[in-house]
UniProtKB/TrEMBL annotation:
GO terms for molecular function: ATP binding; phosphoprotein phosphatase activity; phosphorelay sensor kinase activity. Residues 200-421 form the Histidine kinase domain. Coiled coil: none annotated. It catalyses: ATP + protein L-histidine = ADP + protein N-phospho-L-histidine. This is histidine kinase. It comes from the Bacteria. It is an enzyme of class 2 (transferase). GO terms for cellular component: plasma membrane. InterPro entries: BphY/WalK/GraS-like (IPR050351), HATPase_C_sf (IPR036890), HATPase_dom (IPR003594), His_kinase_dom (IPR005467), HisK_dim/P_dom (IPR003661), HisK_dim/P_sf (IPR036097), Sig_transdc_His_kin-like_C (IPR004358). It is found in: Cell membrane.
């Protein structure tokens, strides 16, 4: 059998390692031979073969090395033959079913029993998996036309799951075949989410772009000589470019968060100082919206492990939302409390507004990307629909939680629980 490049390389490496290991022995041998040559007057014809013998001896494998190679060969020869198909099937994490020439089940591993109800030895797989693609897969492999084949198969009940199923023959002339089901549901879900996200982001960018393009046309045409209309349209165009810029900033924020490595442990954030500066930075927006921000903080220094800039972004988003959407309530409270319930000790920061609140059915969805309760309202409030998903992302990185409590007409309370450790 031809030896592969990798095989030659590893053999070469092993010889080099032995020579390295025996280098002192080799050196001593060479010195002895040279001494014999110089002082004892030995002939060069005797010395050269002696030198060659010495190098060959240094390259021979050591006892332990020989022993481990022998053991590996023993395991391969005896052990693998003894290893039962049942053990091998059990070691495979994906559902696996072995069947015979009549498509009757011979054996299934635990993952297959868990994934597909009602499996039993002897049952017909052609009846169990009636989807046309599975029938074609079984027919193809049993007719002997193919040694291996792959199809995508979707189970509808009890929950929809998509598998990539590969079928192949087992060994040579054993009369057995195997199906392995690789669950693709999660990959599909992520692909769908990514496609939806791109469609949403493109739509969000296209709307202001179309508006700007429309106004440029009007300014070059009918409004060419109308200074009042020109000023008004330029203002709208500026607002639209601002909207596009906010959206791009939020998209970049999200993608940066997704690419960031895990938080380095050990960095402590002064929470009181961080929240104070968020409140200060939103002062102008609050007074513009007629909102009074009240603080209800615990005494003493409060520090949590985390990233200061990211936590600033979290509280800025939540407080900005409270000022924008809770404007009618006039008052927003930011409270900070220590939670020592033993299970998950930490700090709870709650931002509570007295605005219109959020209906129950929207609460589980408002942290999704681009999800808004009222799209028009969000747009007038310069929203992008990405704020809360950025919040959620950052909190996940901090091992923290966001809980939302609200009742229509009674305001909303967003609580961030930051673990102490
Ligand atoms: P946006 O950029 O639209 O504000 P967010 O992700 O920050 O996006 O919020 C998603 C939606 O959640 C908002 O559009 C709004 O409908 C709703 N929302 C968020 N905070 C509040 C709040 N304090 N009161 C009422 N509704 C809110």
């Amino acid at each position: 059998m031809a030896e592969t490049g990798a095989g030659q390389e590893s053999r070469g490496q092993a010889l080099a390692a032995r020579l390295r290991r025996n280098r002192w022995l080799l050196a001593a041998g060479v010195v002895a031979i040279l001494v014999a040559y110089s002082f004892a007057g030995a002939s060069i014809l005797v010395l050269l073969p002696a030198l060659a013998l010495l190098v060959a001896a240094a390259m021979l494998p050591a006892d332990a090395e020989r022993q481990s190679a022998d053991t590996a060969a023993d395991i391969e020869a005896g052990g693998l033959q003894r290893l039962s198909g049942e053990y091998l099937a059990a070691a495979v994490a994906d559902p696996l079913i072995i069947f015979d020439h009549s498509a009757a089940m011979v054996h299934a591993n635990a993952a297959a029993f868990a994934a597909f109800g009602g499996l039993a030895p002897g049952m017909s797989l052609a009846l169990k998996f009636r989807a046309p693609e599975m029938q074609a897969l079984l027919d193809g492999i049993l007719s002997g036309q193919l040694a291996a084949d792959v199809v995508d198969y979707t189970e509808k009940l009890p929950v929809e799951r998509t598998y990539r199923v590969s079928a192949s023959t087992v060994g040579h002339a054993t009369g057995l075949y195997v199906l392995v089901f690789k669950d693709q549901s999660e990959t599909r879900r992520i692909d769908r989410m990514r496609a939806d996200f791109i469609a949403n982001a493109s739509h969000e960018l296209r709307t202001p772009l179309a508006s700007i393009a429309g106004f440029i046309e009007t300014l070059r045409g009918p409004a060419r000589n109308d200074p009042a209309a020109r000023d008004q349209f330029l203002q709208i165009m500026q607002n639209q470019t601002g909207r596009m810029a906010r959206l791009i900033d939020d998209l970049l924020s999200l993608s940066r968060l997704e690419m960031k490595p895990y938080l380095r442990p050990g960095t402590a954030v002064d929470l009181r100082q961080t929240i104070d500066s968020v409140i200060d930075s939103l002062g102008p927006l609050a007074s513009e919206s007629g909102i009074v921000i009240e603080r209800d903080f615990i005494d003493g220094p409060v520090s949590v492990p985390g990233d200061r800039d990211e936590l600033f972004q979290v509280f800025e988003n939540l407080l900005e939302n409270a000022c924008k959407y809770g404007q009618s309530g006039g008052r927003v409270t930011v409270s900070m409390a220590r939670v020592d319930d033993g299970q998950d000790p930490g700090i709870d920061v709650t931002i509570r507004d007295n605005g219109p609140g959020i209906a129950e059915e929207h609460i589980p969805r408002i942290t999704e990307r681009f999800y808004r309760v009222d799209v028009e309202n969000s747009r007038t409030q310069k929203g992008t629909g990405l704020g809360l998903s950025i919040v959620k992302h950052i909190l996940t990185r901090h091992n923290a939680r966001l809980s939302i409590k609200s009742e229509v007409g009674k305001g909303a309370a967003f609580t961030v629980h930051l673990p102490a450790r």
